[in-house]
Design goal:
By secondary structure, the protein is mostly helical. The protein is 63% helix and 0% strand. The protein has helices at 2-22, 33-51, 55-60, 64-75, 101-107, 109-120, 127-130, 134-153, 163-175, 180-184, 186-197, 216-230, 232-241, 250-255, 264-275, 281-294, 297-301, 305-313, 321-330, 336-340. One of its GO terms (molecular function) is GTPase activator activity.
């Protein structure tokens, strides 16, 4: 597997700039890249300092002018006694105040534990993520910072299991950049691009929005409509004959951007196609999901509920990926003509 990782690193290094450009992280003008990267990385550093520091670090961290003033006061202290550091009620570890840094810190402990567990299971066959080396631990620590910062800055969504899988390809590509400065700033760059790639689908992770127009159920319904327009026979067999609803298999495909269905090198290739689509991530993602069904059509038509569920929840790895992507390109995402003809 280590040889595979070396090949992946060479491949990712050649497209890392393009990925940042496609995600909108970098402006179209190359002359502005350096300035934009510097600003974005400084913003990330500020967010980390504000949201990820242990409360004790906030409390004991003093502005330089205050620290100098207190030192002068202590030098003039006639009795020579050390001054007790003043801690407000809100800053006390046992404070129940909603604005207390400690209360907020303890509330996220459970999230940190969940993130750690998920990161331990992220691509266990790849030493880059799973080995017990300082290099792998550094990678997991950086990914934990990104996921925790996302959770804290998006309290309505927080952290949802599986986000680690979406982050993994982004962080891998950026941290293996041959440009040393870019590789050193992989954490900051990955955070911004992770937020961007979730931009079209972040509502899929929010259970309260499941039934909304932007929720996962609406997306699954749209996916079903695309299949119906492109192959009504297969759609009818899945919906009514074998009764395999999209919720049983496409929920994971869509929310995790296919990161659980293919080998890592295939995921990178699929994401190249998804990110380069001018109509957005979701448009091409749904077309690829539809193509996945068309590529195993004969097996699905001959299968019952159990056989089809097993097939789609463990998508076969003998499908030619380039052919699948070509099928996806040829799929019509437009369902309006179908409904107008009814």
């Amino acid at each position: 597997m280590e040889q595979v990782e070396e090949v992946l690193m060479l491949r990712s290094a050649s497209v890392v700039g393009a990925d940042k450009l496609l995600l909108g992280y970098l402006p179209s003008s190359h002359d502005l890249w350096e300035t934009q990267l510097k600003e974005n990385r400084q913003k990330y550093a500020s967010m980390k300092e504000e949201l990820l520091l242990n409360p004790s670090e906030h409390i004991w961290k003093e502005p330089k002018h205050l620290s100098t003033t207190k030192q002068h006061e202590d030098n003039n202290n006639a009795d020579g006694l050390l001054r007790r550091h003043e801690i407000s009620v809100e800053d006390h570890p046992l404070s129940l105040d909603k604005e207390s840094l400690w209360r907020q810190y303890f509330q996220h402990t459970e999230i940190v534990e969940q993130i750690d567990r998920d990161l331990q299971r992220t691509h266990p066959d790849m030493p880059f993520f799973s080995a017990e080396t300082s290099f792998s631990r550094k990678n997991r620590e950086a990914m934990k910072n990104i996921l925790l910062l996302f959770a804290k800055s998006n309290p309505a969504i927080c952290y949802v299991q599986g986000m680690n899988e979406v982050l993994a390809p982004i962080y891998f590509v950026f941290s293996t950049d041959t440009d040393k400065q870019n590789a050193e700033n992989a954490e900051a760059d990955s955070f911004s691009c992770f937020v961007r790639i979730l931009g079209d689908s972040v509502d899929h992770f929010c259970q309260q929005l499941d039934n909304s127009s932007s929720g996962i159920l609406a997306t699954l319904s749209h996916f079903s409509d695309i299949l119906k327009v492109n192959d009504e026979q297969l759609w009818h067999h899945l919906e009514f004959t074998s009764k395999v609803k999209p919720q049983f298999y496409a929920f994971r495909w869509i929310t995790l951007l296919l990161t659980q269905e293919f080998k890592f090198e295939s995921i990178l290739r699929i994401w190249d196609t998804i990110l380069s689509n001018t109509f957005g991530v979701q448009d091409m993602l749904l077309r690829i999901c539809c193509a996945m069904l068309l590529c195993v059509k004969s097996r699905l038509l001959s299968g019952d509920f159990v056989a089809n569920i097993k097939l789609l929840q463990h998508y076969p790895d003998d499908i030619n990926l380039e052919y699948l992507l070509q099928v996806a390109q040829d799929i019509s995402p437009d369902t309006s003509s179908y409904f107008l003809s009814l």
